[in-house]
Design brief:
By secondary structure, the chain is of the alpha/beta class. The protein folds into 2 domains: about 10-255, TIM Barrel, CATH 3.20.20; about 255-340, no CATH class. It is built from 15 helices and 14 strands. The protein has an 8-stranded parallel sheet with strand order 3-11-10-8-7-6-5-4. Strands 9, 12, 13 and 14 form a 4-stranded antiparallel sheet that branches. Helix 1 (about 30-35) runs parallel beside helix 4 (about 75-90) and helix 4 runs parallel beside helix 5 (about 105-115).
Amino acid sequence: MVFKPLKIGKHIIEKPIIQGGMGVGISWDQLAGAVSREGGLGVISSVGTGIYENRAYAKRVLNGGRPYEAENFYSRDALFKIFENTRKICGDKPIACNILYAINEYDRVVKDSCEAGADIIITGAGLPLTMPEAAKDYPDVALVPIVSTAKALRILCRRWEKTHKRLPDAVIVEGPLSGGHQGFKYDECFMPENQLEAILPPVVEEAKKWGDIPVIAAGGIWDKSDIERMFALGADGVQMGTRFIGTHECDASDEFKQVILNSKEENIKLFKSPVGYPARGVKTNLHKMIEEGSAPKIKCISNCVAPCNRGEEAKMVGYCIADSLSDAYDGKLDTGLFFTGSNGYRLNELISVKELMDKLVNGE
């Protein structure tokens, strides 16, 4: 099968492969720039930009380099620098920015991303009903929400059309095998009716009712055969995160990559998260410390996500997600939280983004 280009708003993605946005330093300039350069869509994560370039942007640094408050955890200056460096790698090819709906200061970060040069905004971690309002001053920026059900897409399209007379430029439907936060509650992640193969066709049908909205499948996609399977079910493109961790250009630390390379299938689990929905990653020393009651004390310095309620939910689950993901980015094996999709254990070597894109398009 020859893959067709993917059109999102005014932007043409030569190879219909979107690199998933991976927060706190896993997909920043080096990875996103390389993916866009090779014809896919590179996605910069807006999460944790305050620690970019060895914390040069972590203003009012406290507690070992933690950015103080959301305005510094989601640093505007750092985001602009990341986009600037990404453009040096991929030129004028399309770049997206992933912005979680659950974060504090969502509207501000959307505006920052548009001003920094994002061509496309991708938002999940909640149903982004107010996404068009946040981006209303930037009509050329394409908006791509992430949903888990056809009902969610229907609700979102109705609201967007009513409030802003616009519809999504594309929609990502994500199944419960992805890395990081899920769109289902813990038990729901294991139900057959919630797997990607089951939820994708209804979303495709719902999208058709609203016109020409491209549908992008995500969650557990690994190789060309998986991509072709998604296309057979009606998808126009795919989003993949975990495979891009296994690249030289991935912005993660060497230690982070090694944790994923060393992982076993039985070590990749769903965990409770302060965000309120389960998240998938590698079970490491952090989880042992949580079980023993010896995990780092929670101070909520960065105030990163609204559902955490200023650290109250973090105390309930036993860890601060901002601090733990930052530690993983820094390669701190004792206290880091290492997100990966269900297929993370299948990574066994590091290759270039160019080689990976070739494998995905032409087969192994």
